[in-house]
Design brief:
This protein is of the alpha+beta class. It folds into 2 domains: 36 residues; 141 residues, Roll (SH3 type barrels), CATH 2.30.30.100. A 10-stranded antiparallel sheet has the order 5-1-2-3-4-10-6-7-8-9. A hairpin with a 4-residue loop joins strand 6 and strand 7.
Length: 186
Amino acid sequence: MRWHELFTDLEGQARSLERGDLDSEVADRTRAELAGVELESRLRAQVSRSVTLRVTGAGDVHGVLQRIGSGWLLVATPDEAVIPLAAVSAAWNLPPAAVSKQGDQLSSRVSLTAVIRAIARDRSPVLIRMRDGLPITGTPQRVGADFVDVSTHDLDVAPRHGQVRSQVTVAFAAIALLQRGATGWA
């Protein structure tokens, strides 16, 4: 009987060690997989859902995440806002799910530059909130590789000669968010 108890005890210890080794291996693999997940992938899993984002220079932005491109987000706030991903400093209550860029190859290739060029072609007046909090209102005129020239004026007037206050060149890296009025982006 003593041998039976001894072997039972040894088998229990072996099972416990195996379980511990397996748990440790699973935890190590989980940490390794998580180390490769980017915020963009976590946000991509939230497209068509409500999000709350802390945006440097703009504060908390609440709305429905509509689209994600290469380094930018489109959030319906009631007005739609294009937010450079680099301006997002935090996101509240994100589930652990993530979606890779391969799941949405077309959108992930559209750059912030392309979005701002489309807005400039449309001649829509915009509000640009800078990362330092400064608002700039006007109409985008020319778009370079990493900047946009904006004719500044009030949003409710056309950018005619007498209405334009100044021309300002805005670095993309300084943009916290870019909004067009309730007319939308479509």
